[in-house]
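From the pipeline queue, job 12 of 40. The input is one protein chain; the requested action is below.

Action: predict structure.
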Amino acid sequence: MADHEYWIHLQAWVNREVKAERRKGRGKSEPVYKKFDSFFDYEKRVKEASGKPALNRPVSSKAGRYIEYLERRKNGKL
């Protein structure tokens, strides 16, 4: 049950992050993620799943860093 709740909360976090906007001028804003690729790096995830080393690029979003933290915590690499 805890794993199910974890995924529900993770999905809520990602939904919030994908809707994020940054202020641009007075009374204007723009999406933080203009393309899906800037939010989710599919190629990186495929390489990680296949066991090949992924590129060590810095994660720019708070959600991405949080997800990496949770993965490290889950794998006992904290």
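Job complete. Residues 2-18 form the longest helix (17 residues).
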